[in-house]
Amino acid sequence: xxxxxxxxxxxxxxxxxxxxxxxxxxxxxxxxxxxxxxxxxxxxxxxxxxxxxxxxxxxxxxxxxxxxxxxxxxxxxxxxxxxxxxxxxxxxxxxxxxxxxxxxxxxxxxxxxxxxxxx
Length: 119
Prior knowledge:
Elements: E1 3-7, E2 10-13, E3 18-25, E4 32-39, E5 46-52, E6 58-60, E7 68-73, E8 78-83, E9 92-100, E10 108-109, E11 113-118
Parallel strand pairs: 2-11
Antiparallel strand pairs: 1-3, 3-8, 4-5, 4-9, 5-6, 7-8, 9-10, 9-11
């Protein structure tokens, strides 16, 4: 059973940085892709960034391009989201998720970590 555990959230001032981590276990992830999602109060969950484990290809939401970087460490089985130049509108609960590349639906989700950006 795949398990995802996020960490690294917190309170930061606008313009600051945070790095989120997602520790993955329970499977070999060569054929998986991982995503970071976020959900702000009263808003729908949105995709922030995606990475293919096998070739590290990445995809970003327009709202975070140039500020956020997704990466993975295949020794530690961990996916990271480096967030720079944070804005108050980045405030949300951030979730890590994983799915097989051949599937369309994310099957595995972490518990979420709160990111709060003060102005």
